[in-house]
Structures are given as structure tokens and as C-alpha cells.
Design a protein that fits this description.
Keywords: Membrane, Transmembrane, Transmembrane helix. The chain crosses the membrane at residues 59-80, 87-108. The chain is mainly alpha-helical. The chain has helices at residues 5-33, 39-47, 52-79, 81-109. It has one domain (3-109).
Length: 110
């Protein structure tokens, strides 16, 4: 059973897209983490109990985590597309055999 180029190509395309989006999120997190803050703005925001540096740091951490996950899953899809297609085909074949086996078992039981 040879994997078709179209199946692998779609998984590689999705994986590449996820890697690019993960890199963009990481760049946004890096930009937020290094953002200089105006001291007057920070002082005024602290009056209403908003910690702007802490907020930006937390936002950067969450964006970096999401970017890392997206890039990791994208890399797995991109580099393991052939193996994933084979695994999906094996799983679908086993599911089809199970369904036919249950049908035959019920037909012979009656």
C-alpha cells in the first residue's frame, strides 16, 4: 500500500502552515516581552490596579506557549506525513474489518 502524493501533500501543507503561525506567535510574544513601558502610563494604570508589565509578561508567556505547541504539532505533521497517512489507513482498515466482523457475527448468531 503506497501512500499517495496528494494525502501527504495536504498534511505537509497543514504542518507548514502551523509552523509559520507558531513562529508568528513566538515573534509576537518576543515583541510583547521586550516592549518598553512609559513610566507615567504605568503609574496611572497602577492607580486602577492594573499591572501593565505583569500583564504583558503573562500575555507573552501564553502566546509563546501557543506558538510552541503550534510549531511542534506542525513539525510532526510536516515531517511525519507519510507515517501518519499509513497509520490512518491502518486504523481505518481495522475499523472496517471490525464493522464487517460484527455484522457477520450477528448474522451467524441469528
Amino acid at each position: 500500500m503506497n501512500t499517495s502524493a496528494a494525502s501527504v501533500l495536504w498534511l505537509e501543507l497543514l504542518g507548514g502552515l502551523l509552523v509559520v503561525l507558531g513562529a508568528l506567535l513566538a515573534w509576537l510574544a518576543f515583541t510583547l516581552a521586550g516592549q518598553p513601558i512609559d513610566p507615567d502610563l504605568e503609574k496611572n494604570l497602577l492607580r486602577i490596579r492594573l499591572d501593565l508589565p505583569g500583564f504583558l509578561d503573562g500575555m507573552a508567556r501564553h502566546l509563546a506557549t501557543a506558538g510552541a505547541w503550534m510549531a511542534g504539532v506542525g513539525a510532526l505533521l510536516f515531517f511525519g506525513a507519510t507515517h501518519l497517512v499509513r497509520l490512518f489507513r491502518l486504523a481505518l482498515g481495522l475499523a472496517a474489518l471490525f464493522a464487517v466482523g460484527v455484522w457477520v457475527w450477528l448474522a451467524l448468531k441469528a
